[in-house]
Amino acid sequence: MTVALMIVGGCALVGRTAEPPAPRAGTARITGAPPASAPPSPAAVASIEPEHPGRTDVYAADRPGMLSPVVKGFRSLVYVPNSESGTVDVIDPETYRIVRHFTVGALPQHVVPSWDLKTLWVNNNRGNFLTPVDPRTGRPGRPVPVEDPYNLYFSPDGAYALVMAERNNQLDLRDPHSMKPLRSLPLPCRGVNHGDFTADGRVFLASCEFSGDLVVIDWRAPSVIRRIHLGHMSMPQDVKLSPDGTVFYVADMERHGVWLVDAATYGVKRFLPTGRGAHGLYVSRDSRRLYVSNRGEGSVSVVSFAKRKVVDVWRIPGGGSPDMGGVSADGTKLWLSGRYHGVVYVFDTRRGRLVRTIPVGAGPHGLCVYPQPGRYSLGHTGVFR
């Protein structure tokens, strides 16, 4: 596949050859200029610089047992937002039983840990509010009005909550505690929903599901640096940075695999087929593998970061719809919602097989396993550094 690089404000058009994607792949177009080189604030540097320069692993603080003192007294639970039911089911991961059930708002999409690890936020997309949950007790608090909260991230320095306003096609920057609006960034794409940050925390790469785009964002300005069009056949979903910080992996539900995007140049490197309906991306606790949930075929593809290829596939007997979720604190289980089957799937990551199917409400989506190791949360269902 030839990837064309088009820079707005300049005349250069550069072509380069990459490995071919799935059949009927389109041409990726990148527009914009490189990000500004202004340094982050001192608070940001303290939060995002690697502890061991030269040995980059952005997930080094996510190893088993590396729980923050903030969460060490929290009970281990799995929070499941049921989009069609407008409810949350809370599961004990030891017994696999639902221990709490409560109503939230219209179309809850994800359960998101706050940057300071002290609160879980249920994103009530159509209800236009966030429901705070106290992870010490697992009980919900008073709803906070927030328009169009499809998904929620936090800036690496903890200064902003980044609301992915999917239907409004914008990124809303809010106070991370009160959720009061601060600034909004209109986006040149439709259906913004998932993202991740570069290793230095300066840039946010977000996916736009309905227009087949990725947008590179300087969240401090805030401004759009570039727009990457993956083609009319694309429907990008979850985004995850490789442990060494060099590549973004982007799930594509219509191309049935993941794109590899250079984290320095934002050029599309190649496409890796995984399975039908590739959707969620989760990093193993040893930073060696990426788990890809293939919602359309009921499987999980295991990708080796070192080899950049699929090394195993875990299949759900009889099929299923594995969607969003997270890895257990000890790394031995992968929890995923069954979006179209009203269940939660639990996979044993050591044996590579499904070990439990748990009935929940209708339309389960972005479940959160909590607590997990890490110093702070960047959002979604649990992206920790």
UniProtKB/TrEMBL annotation:
This is YncE family protein. Residues 18-45 are annotated as: Disordered. SUPFAM superfamilies: Nitrous oxide reductase, N-terminal domain. The keyword Signal applies. It comes from the Bacteria. Keywords: Signal. Residues 76-368 form the YNCE-like beta-propeller domain. InterPro entries: Host-pathogen_enzymatic-act, N2O_reductase_N, WD40/YVTN_repeat-like_dom_sf, YNCE-like_beta-prop.
